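Let us practice reading a record.
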Amino acid sequence: MEPQDDRRAMYAYFGILAAFKLFTLVAILIYMSSWHAVLFVVASHVLWITIGAVLVAGPATFWARLVRVRSRRRHLLAQEWHVEESHTAPH
């Protein structure tokens, strides 16, 4: 097997695992819609919620910083060159 095949197998395995967990979560909440069911789901998925939060935190932090830096750059350019803000799409 090639390394790319191994990687695809890994993604398929974890994708199926995550889809099954999501399906189970939705099924529990649909058929047992109470606060006890919600607490049970949260308690039994703490590890998954933590892993998801860690995986989303990196790109979200990068995106937020990128937006701040671009805004700051636009502000500094406008101050230095007295440029009006353009509403056209960048090239």
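A brief commentary: The chain is about 80% helix and 0% strand.
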